[in-house]
Amino acid sequence: MMNWQLLRYLIASYTRSYRYFAPFSFMIISVLLLYSYKPNPVMDSYAVTSTLLFMGFAWMGMTFLNHDQGRQTSLLLLHTGSAGVFYVTQYAVLVTFSAIMSTMAVIYPILTGMFNEPVGMERFVIAWLAHLLLSLLGSAISLYFQSGWIENQGRAIGLICIVVILSIAGLSVVSSLPGKMTFMAYILPPVSLMIDMLMHADEQGLIKCAWALLYTFGYTAVLFLVYLNRACTKDAAELVRKSG
Fold first, then answer.
1. In whole angstroms, what separates CA 127 from the centre of its chain?
2. Which of 58, 99, 222, 233 would disulfide-bridge 138, Cβ 3.0–4.6 Å?
3. Is the pTM here over 0.85, yes or no?
4. 9-35: pLDDT as tens digits
């Protein structure tokens, strides 16, 4: 359900726009600054860099989705022949960039000897999955704040900043709420859950780590599927309206 030709076109279109430069620079510079001295604790450092990628991809998602101001969306939808294929391919671009940045963020400190102890395969896999999933979560959140959904982009930026901050501070926010409000823990994006998992990965064991990873994957999948359904419905309604 993905169009490879469209995928290549969207990547080329985005990179030609140079809108990728600011969010990518933020992520790369932040990681380099974090590892500007050594030694560093393994999983605590990965907790920080995965959070930076979550923030970076929430930002990058908006720049990607808005990079042509929607001028070519209708034409691309027409050539693709399926709204579902178009939106899946569009998100696949963010998945591609997420996989690249996650791999770089996890491998860089290992290759440069920035840690105070060996990482090991188990911690490496957990860290890589955490970086990838938080990157995809940030990308999925950005889908709801693009210009096609919120016309006032100043308001959209403010709202997504609030969501990002609440997501990172999720566990602290929920713990300060009354008992009847604990359901908020399941509404907020599980960024703080992942941060806590990474910081205590050695103590929690593989099963608890796997649960946190699976929960984040499921949360991201639901966000994307809801977006996909609403976006396709919106396009169908717009087509009916234009055809009279």
1. 15
2. 58
3. yes
4. 999 999 998 889 999 999 999 999 999
